[in-house]
Structure formats: C-alpha cells, structure tokens
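User: Can you predict the 3D structure for this chain?
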Amino acid sequence: MKYGYFNDQEKEYIITAPDTPLPWINYLGSENFFSLISNTGGGYSFYKDAKLLRLTRYRYNNVPLDSNGHYYYINDNGTIWNPGWQPSQTPLDFYECRHGLGYTCYSGKKNGLKAQVTAFVPLHDPCEIHKVTLKNEGLGSKEFTLFSYVEFCLWNAMDDMTNFQRNLSTGEVEVEGSVIYHKTEYRERRNHFAYYSVNADIDGFDTDRNTFVGTYGSNKEPDMVQKNRSGNSLASGWSPIGSHRLSIHLDPGEEKVLVFLLGYAENPGEHKWSAPNVINKEPATLVMKKYRTAAQVDQALSDLKKNWENLLSTYSVSMADEKTARMVNIWNQYQCMVTFNLSRSASYYESGTGRGMGFRDSCQDLLGFVHMVPERARERILDIASTQFEDGSAYHQYQPLTKKGNMDIGSGFNDDPLWLIAGVSAYLRETGDWGILEEPVPFDNDVSKSQPLMEHLRRSFGFTKLNLGPHGLPLIGRADWNDCLNLNCFSTEPGESFQTSGPSEGPVAESVMIAGMYVKYGKEYAQICRMTGHADEALEAEASVQEVYDAVLRAGWDGKWFLRAYDAFGGKVGSKDCEEGKIFIEPQGFCVMGGIGLAEGLAEQALDSVKEQLDTPYGILILQPAYSVYHKHLGEITSYPPGYKENGGIFCHNNPWITIAETMIGRGNRAFEVYRRTCPAYTEEISEIHKTEPYVYSQMIAGTDAKNFGEAKNSWLTGTAAWTFVSISQHILGIRPGFHGLIVDPCLPDSIKEFSAVRKFRGAEYHIHVKNRSGDQNDAPGLFVDGRPIEGNEIPYTEGKKEYHVMLQLG
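Assistant: Here is the predicted structure, written as structure tokens:
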C-alpha cells in the first residue's frame, strides 16, 4: 500500500494521506541551524547541537504520537483545524505534504479555505522560515483566526526533561510588536536567545503554555484557540511558548501570505553582566529584515534549491530503471548529506541528548558525501582525528558543539581507529589533497600534543597491529562495528579469576570482522605510505596485513563461511559448532571486501552461505539462528528478542557490504538483487509493512524470527545511506575515485543494458556511457577515453583538463 508518490522532476516525495504508518519526516538545514519536520508539522529545531542548543521541545514516547511541533491552528467559525492535520486531527477536505530537498510544504483545505505552509532553513542564516499562504476558495467571504504555536525548550534538552525543580522557575520572555523573544537563562551564563516573529501586526499573543493550552488541556484544541482569543500572557517560570493570533478576512478568491520566522541569535561581544536580562536584538532584527516579504522568502527558497541542484550534480545517472536512477540521483545522496550533518544525534529515534557525533559513524558517513562537499569533509576529518588518543584509539563519540570527546561513553571500540584510515583514504582519492596529511592535529583535543594527520593514521594502523589476540586476530575490545557484541564484558563469574587459552593478558576476545577491516584498510594505508615517500613503512604495513590475512585463513574460516569472532574464553562465535548464531553477515562482507579468500576460492563459498542461510525477501539477516536466551559472555546482542536489531534483524547498514563483495567476484545479478531488496524506491509498495519513509533508508528491518517481520525502524540517520550509495555508485555502476584518477569498472546486472553518467572529479567533468553486453558487433569491448582505448580501468588524472568523454563496452 502506498501513501504517496515520487515526483522526480521536482525532486519531491508527495504524501497524500496524513495518517502514514509512522511520522514521515524531513530535515531542514544544512549548516548550523536544523529542524526536523514531519508530514503533519511535528518536530523540533536546534542550533548546531541538538542537546545543548535546542530551541523547541519534542516529546518522545508520547501519546498521541508526534503531537509536538511547529503548528498553526485555524478557528473558522468554531471549526478548529490544522493545515497539516496534527495535532487537532480534524478531518480535512484535502491534504498534501511535499517533502523536498531541504524544504517541506504541507497544505490542507477545510470548508473552502486552503492553508499551505512552506518550511525551510535558508542558506547561511540561523532560522527556520514558514511561509503561510491562506486562500479563500469558496464562494463567500471568510472571517477566521490563525494561531501560531511553538513550545520553547530551555536550551539543554536533557536538563530540560529532568531538572524541573529549577527549570520551572527560570522561564523568561519578552514581546515587542510581533516578535516573541525567548531569553530563558540568558541572565545566567549565555549570550544567545531565540525569537519567533511574523511579518504582520498581531491581534494578540501568548507565551505561557498553561494559559494558551489550559492547565489540564492539550495541544489538540488549546484553550485559547477554542475561546478564539489570546491571553497576552508573559511567561514567568513554568513553560514558555510562542503564539501569535491574527484575525483574517478574505474575499472569495483572495489570498494572504504571512512569513513566520523562528530564529537563533547571539549577542556580539562579551556577556553584559551588568544587565544580564537585556538582549541586543540587532542580530535578530537583521535576519528578520532579510525575510520580511514573500518575494524575499521565495528567492531564499530558490537559492536553496539551486544549492541542492549543484550538490547533486557531482554524480548523476541516466538509465531506464527509474527507481535506481531516482535513488542515485536524489534521495540516497540527499540522505548522505543529512547524515553527514547530524551523524546519529537527532532523529525520531535518536533524541539528540546522548550520542552526538560518532567516531566510527562520521568516518563511514564521509564515504557518502565527500564527493559533494570535499572542503567540509576535510574539516570533519580534522575534527574526528582530534578525538583520538596517542595510542591510536579514540573517543567513540564527541559533542558537535564543543567537539570534545564524550567521556560518558569513552573509548575501547577497537574498530574505531581503522575507520579513520577509511575516511582519509576516501578523501585523498576524491580530492588528491595530500596536504591534509601535513595538517597538525591534536590528540584528545590537546594542542600541545599535536602531530600531522599522517601520524594519526600511523597510530591508527599501529593500534590494531599491536593489539592482536591468541589466534593472531585483532582484539575486539568493548566491541567492534557491532556495538552489541560485548565479548569481554562478562568474561568471568563472580569470584572467578580471568583465564585465557592464549598468551595475551587481559580480555582476549578477537574479531574476524576487524581482521577484514585491517586487511582492506591496511592495504590502503600502505598505498598512502608509498605515495608519500614512505616505501619502507609501506612494506612493513603490507607484511603485517599479510600476517592477519593468513591468521584469518588459519583461524577465521569455519568450512563454509568466516567466523565472527572468538569470545573471551577462546570459544568460537559465528560457527557451525554454535547452537545459535552460527553465521554472521559482517565478516562475510568485510573479509571479501578486503580480498581475503578470493585467490583461495573461499569468497564465493562464504557469499553462497550468506544467500543460503541469511537471505529474506526484505534483505539479509545479520545472523542466524537468532539467540533465544540471554548469554552473558556475548553481551547486549542477546538482550533483544529474536529477529530485532542485532539479534537476527535485517541490519540494512551491512547489506551493502555483501553487494560490494558480490561485485568483487563478478556476480552483478546477485549484487543488484541484494541492493534492490532494501532500496526504499523498491519497498514503497509495501509501506504498510515497512512503515518508515519510502524515500530514505532505515537502519533495521525486523527479521524472520520477529513478530513484525519486514517492519523497519531507525530511519534517516544510519550508515546505510553512505554504504548503499558507495555500493551502487562505485561498485555496481562502478564509477569511483582512485589515487591516480577516476576508475570506471562496473559490475552490472543483466537488467541494466546501458547507462550514462556525469561525474565531476577534481575540477573536471566526465561524461560516461556504459553498454552492457549489447551484442553490437560494431562496438569493440574495452574502455575508451576521448575516442582512444586505454589499458586497465583507471583514467589517469591530467592537471588542467576539464572534460573527458568515456565509453565502456562490456562484452
């Protein structure tokens, strides 16, 4: 069942029913100011950091679902309704929501009145603009009242939800004309404030929630909206809100446009301790002047759309398969950019109060956006590397505002260091900017301990090299990519001493997945060493990689697939000898991606086992059989019911690893089959089962053991976005950056007979056309650049050349 449709021309997903299976959201903002907005107007806003600078509140686990947001109420002769349906849920005569790139437009009609809200965050300014268009489509005149509504958060979202004994006495607002200023805690220690304005004279306002909603009321039909008046309340303590009231008259066919602005502002200079509750309104006033008229707002929206057009033009394809084309050209890249901006910090599944930016997460996200904004990728790499410790390990997460490591989570995830190599390698291949390796970067944000970025890579590689276990495989630490596989957390019973079966001291659980990473990214590190004049170091790195490669063949192969790990007692995890959890997806993908088993004929067997043991119609399961009981020595992975998350769910994030692995052994049909099963454009038809947005990837889909098989969760902010884009764009379609130039090396399914692509790379534009086994005898197989055949699949980069015409005949 579908709840809308794609409009590829406008790059929009159009939702035609407000009661979607779950709230279907969009992200507004691409720099510092961000808003989440659902198809019914729910969501919240923040500046830079969803925890520390939250502008508006949002209530998770609330009933009814998604009933906090940025709302407009219309009281039309006693009928109360919202253009986005929520929160009043009054039946509408017409409803539509258009989610576009960085903007959302939703509209409703009731009794001849149409109300449309176009919401977006403009480029370069910290505010959210709502253009509200009201049109009388009836035969008679209309007299009605419009109420705006936002509920302010007291900045620190976690403290706002817990510290009521203090917070309920700190609320402060100021109203000047049509502008409501939220300045709670400004007097204490901050130099920032929020403001909420409308570009028209108002007939009333409210800033106290209890007055507007009613002490025992709800935002479904707030007390003031029912009474069709305002209390002109000034919040003092309790819960501050912003609400404007406007009385409107429209003749038949008449239209009125209003511009509402929710913004963040800082006072320049030092905090004025002598008058701590007096704000300097000039920064806000300047922004409000820029977006006062509908024409100014329309121009800002046009500029935003042009910006997205430019970003997406770096990689675009034309092919008969419109579903794949729409994901490659629009939605997959769009999701990659959103995920770059926010990592895993703020979604409808991440509250914005905990994780912040992930070290591993951000490095992986970089793989999906580096081609669009390489300069911002450079900045992100330096931020990530700054949270690394001198031994090469790193904070697992850091806060985006302070860029300091998250001490609550700490470190100990032993895959983290290798992801830095992955991210830097991707950046170097995309840009050729070898100067980044000389950039001084502190360890643990201590500038006195700064070293060139190259030294950080050296420490990353060295960390794994120096932390091998009894079988010669990398130690897993607290966990590897699978945070829930905690093999060292319960290594002893109370009163027992820790015993190991090998020579290492302390926790000795080992990860075959990290071994695959070490081989893959160790090879790339060796290439970086060689290209920067460190030939001896490259040889040493390659020798170390070979040792781990051999260790995987010796101790990591289980007969038909790669083991997942060894636990703290030396027991196998992910083996045919295990009663449950016999086979895991991660090592099958990463070991083959690293080239392990290709020469020995093991890679094909491992991937065949994936198909035989883990395949489902909705994607590949993370493991099978699912764990039916809790195992202390395996940790959190067994705390989930069978079929959910890491315990037998379909983890979409690592399905692309299998796609890539399949292309490495030349199986294009199977690679595309794996790609298609989790691709949103292909799952749109089963939205009533899938439930999450049909235009972006989700982290997890419930597996075969779950009661709700096929139901997705954790959409938007997931490494699935970057890895899936890499899998389709760089491996199936085969256009990827190399250290020496652009590589064109597709592995296509039979269904894709040909395609064209435009790829912008290092200042040049590549026009690529690929024919797949066309049978046309007039076309000789091979790669041709500007009409001339070249050897291999990497087009040498030529300084200053601006255009390449590439033809590849697969035959």
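The first strand starts at residue 4 and ends at 7. DSSP finds 20 helices and 42 strands in the chain.
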